[in-house]
Design brief:
elongated, alpha+beta
Length: 124
């Protein structure tokens, strides 16, 4: 009986390890926000007075321009690849803010349409 229980436990642990999602990399991605998604029309929305980056995270030192990813507007960071918009599970990942509106490669794991980001590298 003990051998049978150990075998079942080993198969269960092996099955869990196999079920863990593999990391992958999305190339030519853009870190955007859930309000704008794949389309930043800052020239239309804001009269061309701000950049796409400022639209996402705001203008440093300007309380009148907090950006979409702020307490005031409540948007979240997203990863855009082509026309596909992925949600981001770990919104506090520091490099999301660093690379807002930049073209990047994003590495992480995918669960449905949500990426848990582990690495962001800016394209050269």
């Amino acid at each position: 009986m003990k051998k049978l229980l150990m075998l079942v436990a080993m198969v269960g642990v092996t099955g869990l390890a196999a079920a863990a999602p593999a990391e992958q990399t999305w190339t030519n991605a853009v870190i955007s926000d859930s309000h704008c998604g794949a389309m930043h029309k800052t020239d239309i929305e804001h009269g061309g007075s701000i950049t796409a980056r400022e639209c996402v995270i705001g203008r440093a030192g300007d309380p009148n321009l907090p950006g979409c990813v702020s307490e005031k507007y409540g948007a979240t960071f997203v990863v855009v690849v082509g026309e596909k918009v992925y949600q981001v599970a770990n919104q506090n990942f520091a490099d999301l803010r660093v690379h807002a509106a930049h073209k990047v490669n994003v590495t992480g794991t995918l669960d449905k349409d949500t990426i848990t980001v582990s690495k962001i590298v800016m394209l050269k």
